[in-house]
Design a protein that fits this description.
Blueprint: E1 2-6, H1 14-29, E2 33-36, H2 43-52, H3 56-72, H4 83-89, E3 97-100, E4 128-131, H5 145-155, E5 162-163, H6 166-176, E6 181-182, H7 192-198, E7 210-214, H8 219-231, E8 235-240, E9 254-258, H9 262-271, E10 274-277, H10 280-288, E11 293-296, H11 304-313, E12 319-320, H12 327-330, H13 336-357
Parallel strand pairs: 1-2, 1-3, 3-4, 5-6, 7-8, 7-10, 8-9, 10-11, 11-12
Length: 358
């Protein structure tokens, strides 16, 4: 079958491109002809132009990051930047099915391309509509009654619906009268050896005395981590996607790594002694690379996707409210053979879901 994937493949975000790569790879492994639907909001061209012209460093960082897409996120359809262009051009792609997901493609306050991530541009007949590990991003649904009714109608035309969080199952049931299956994020469709044999084969495994943090929108907590690391004679690397540094914000004990490649980001996690994060995908790879780790809670329900994962593997106590609470958690020994057995179980169920779709 010829299958299209619609997701946030264009985002300058490590998790976004890695989940795209994983889903593309798994469906291809199942024997299908898989393409990325190159739907990108038209405003991103302006934003990128502005960012690219801020400084040479930012241009260079962007180009290094985008190399991953040029090398691994292939093939892509032609570029669709408007609703009218994708409605007109989609029939020419001749897809048998379209998979939307993963990532927060159904987050109600991130609707950058209208209702495209609910596949409103696909004719009702002839193309199978599927969601894989789609995420609402938040634990509650707060869109308008008009949009809720429209999305409910669109989801009724899906052949299969799966989501990434327990809260997503409840939202689908309570607001859209639609049963949804719980599956793993695409990055968990593979075990550690897949990433080491494909993306990291040229990168050394050199475990070090370093704490690695990936703290989304939490610069003050990075400073707390710096103090924690300094007291223990450790290095501290902060991994960041941000374009602009805040001068003087970070202690000199923090090595603030901006614009590193996707492979470098993965390898930083793989080689770390400890990982502290509030990022879902950083949590995933801390698990896959068997790292001692702590997740720092995000406000307003932002951690529900991490909570679902931690509950499944029995590590709920690795979610803390503040970085000052990390000591006891990091010293706990994680039974990774047991964790891997649980991940393998849900991985098999999730692959079974994909097989049943096509």
């Amino acid at each position: 079958m010829k299958i299209g994937i619609l997701t946030f493949h264009y985002a300058k975000n490590y998790g976004a491109v890695l989940q795209t790569y994983a889903l593309l790879s798994k469906i291809r492994e199942l024997g299908h002809d898989v393409w990325i639907i190159n739907r990108i909001p038209d405003y991103t061209n302006l934003l990128r132009w502005l960012y690219h012209h801020l400084s040479y460093k930012h241009i260079w960082g962007w180009l290094r990051f985008k190399q991953f897409s040029r090398q691994y996120l292939l093939p892509k359809t032609k570029l669709y930047q408007t609703q009218s262009s994708i409605i007109k051009g989609f029939p020419e792609e001749n897809f048998d099915a379209v998979v939307v997901g993963s990532d927060q493609v159904w987050r109600w306050n991130w609707r950058m391309v209208g209702l495209n991530y609910f596949l409103d541009f696909i004719p009702q007949e002839g193309v199978k509509k599927i969601s894989y590990a789609a995420s609402f991003g938040l634990s509650e649904w707060n869109d308008t009654p008009q949009n809720t009714a429209l999305i409910k109608q669109l989801l009724q035309s899906f052949a299969k619906v799966s989501v990434r969080e327990n809260t997503g199952v409840e939202i689908c049931k309570n607001y859209f009268d639609r049963e949804a299956e719980l599956v793993v994020d695409p990055t968990l469709l593979f075990a550690r050896d897949f990433y080491e044999s494909t993306l990291l084969k040229e990168y050394p495994l050199q475990e070090n005395n370093r704490i690695v943090s990936i703290m989304l929108s939490k610069p003050k907590q990075s400073i707390e981590l710096s103090r924690w690391a300094k007291e223990r004679g450790m290095e501290h690397n902060e991994l960041s996607c941000t374009y602009v540094e805040e001068p003087g914000l970070f202690w000199d004990t923090i090595r603030h790594l901006q614009h590193i490649t996707v492979q470098e980001w993965l390898n930083e996690i793989r080689n770390a002694k400890y990982v502290v994060t509030n990022s879902f995908h950083a949590t995933v790879f801390a698990l896959l690379f068997e790292k001692p780790f702590v997740v720092v809670d995000l406000p307003r329900g932002g951690s529900n996707r991490i909570e679902t994962l931690l509950e499944y593997v029995g590590l709920e106590n690795h979610l803390v409210k503040d970085v000052r609470d990390i000591d006891n958690v990091l010293e706990q020994k994680i039974d990774y053979p047991s964790i891997y057995a649980k991940l393998d179980e849900i991985r098999k169920l999730s692959i079974g879901f994909l097989k049943s779709c096509f």
